[in-house]
Amino acid sequence: MKVKICGITDVETAVTAAQFGADALGFVFAESKRRVSVAEAQEIISHLPKEIYKVGVFVNESSDAIEKIASTVGLTHIQLHGDEPAAFSALLSLPVIKAISFQGNEKLTALANFPSDFILLDSPKGKYRGGNGTVFNWSEVDPDVINTKKIILAGGLHADNVEEAIKIIKPFMVDVSSGVETDGKKDLRKIKTFIETAKSTLVGR
After folding, report:
1. Cα gap 66→5, rounded to integer Å
2. Residue 6 appears among annotated catalytic residues
3. Is 83 labeled as catalytic in the residue annotation?
4. Domain tally, the chain
5. Is 170 exposed, middle or buried, given 0-12, 13-18 or 19+ CB atoms closer than 10 A?
6. What is the pTM of this model?
């Protein structure tokens, strides 16, 4: 099971998460308590191994701004967390992760032909478009609807529930932010435990 740690804001956390086995790290360039500047992201990414996914999270940003930031800091993937249409996604030069707040399978079905490499299933919106730490009912997701895309599961995951989530959804990757924090800051011990738990979970097909 692949693991993405999102909301990275400092070099130590990024490097340590990579050493623990994280496959992807997320950098938020939208309104969020975890937002990073271009300069901060560039510095962090310069310390990371080449093979790890460096994902930029954007909400209703212009394609020009996204491309400029991606090129400057060294992103490998673009995560669209806003209301971006299919035509917008198709313009981008990097692989796209389209985030959707799960509100039933009908909306998921509509994304079957969305031009993205991944669909990120998240909880319904809170104050921010993501990273709200709330869980949705995984059992409501129709597996036949999502089997045409690589699914990244997010929304309220932590070490105590990620095994159950993986077994129900069988995603390509799990994504965590607040679930590996203590008092709003990334907790290296929690990151290690989450990664170990997710990667040790056996998924039947």
Report:
1. 20
2. yes
3. no
4. 1
5. middle
6. 0.92
Residue spans of alpha helices (H) in the chain? 11-20, 38-45, 63-73, 86-91, 105-110, 143-146, 162-169, 188-200
Lookup result for tokens 């991944």: 118
Catalytic residue among 23, 83, 122, 183: 122
* Helix 11-20, helix 38-45: angle, nearest 10: 40
* Contact yes or no for 78/94 (Cβ under 8 A): yes
User: How much is the pLDDT for 10?
Assistant: 98
Domain range for 169 is 2-200
pLDDT score for 137: 87
Residue 205 lies in a domain: no
Span between the terminal Cα atoms of the chain, in Å: 13
Q: What is the largest CA-CA distance in the chain?
A: 42
